[in-house]
Design goal:
Structural class: mainly alpha
Number of helices: 3
Helix content: over 70%
Shape: flat
Number of strands: 0
Distance between the termini: 96 Å
Largest sheet: none
Length: 102
Amino acid sequence: MAIFEVDRDKMMEIFALKQNVKSSVLAVMDNRLTAAHLATDVYALIELLEKLEIELVGEPLVQEIPQPVEIPAQPEETPAQQPNQEAQPESQPQEQSQPEQP
């Protein structure tokens, strides 16, 4: 097993971020903070741990989580386009019915 030296300041920063995460968890549970605040603290801690992991191992051991595909955004646009297409045929029969009246 290899022995690694880690900068004391870096470790103190990790410990400080860990304490921030713990405080944020308690604040979210007491409804003093939103989950977004907690997520920000957790993300900062993860980023620092990943940098440390790369320094020690050379590459991340854990694969990154793939970002979710934004499939719901596309179907929302499709229904929005359909009413516009339906509105056009409605306007055409009105134009046709006007010449028939005289």
